[in-house]
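Possible regression after last week's pipeline update?

I re-ran a chain I had predicted before the update to compare outputs. Posting the input and the new output here so someone can diff against the archived version. Not blocking, just want to make sure nothing changed silently.
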Amino acid sequence: MKNLKDPKILTVAALFTGLGIALGLFKIPLTPLIEIRLGSLPVCLAGAYFGPGVGAVVGALVDIGGFVVKPTGPYFPGFTISGIISGIIFGSMMYGKKPTLLRLFITQVVYTVIVGILLNSLWLSMLYMEGGYIAVILARLPKEIVMMFVNTGILFAVIKSLEGVRIGELAHNE
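New output (post-update):
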């Protein structure tokens, strides 16, 4: 969390937050329980570049900010918890490590299982009670598996394209 005291890191984290909120506005609804969103990508980047603490803060702010900007239902703190955990997962597994395709894929698998399948399905079943928790998981599972590969590819492409920008060096400068 000391990273957030650095004005440069705070600025980039704020940019990731704004980008996450903006990307969260665009969704492809497939069913009431299944939609494709890309708002978590900046949260993943914040965790990977600046660590789990900054990733968690960005994850929380993206969820809350997205709700404030354009609520799509009642505010539910479970999704804020999912955002926080997303930043922690990517920060814990990616921060300070070479972002290889395999490392990104493994991190995306962990994120998909914990956040996409287990937690978000739990929150949706609590909100909408569409046949219970297991039914929600089964309905969402094919989309989560496909998006795991899509998000890995997108993250890898974005991280590779940002290599010359040296964002990650901000966190390592004292």
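Follow-up from reviewer: compared with the archived run. The longest strand covers residues 27-29. Marking as no regression found.
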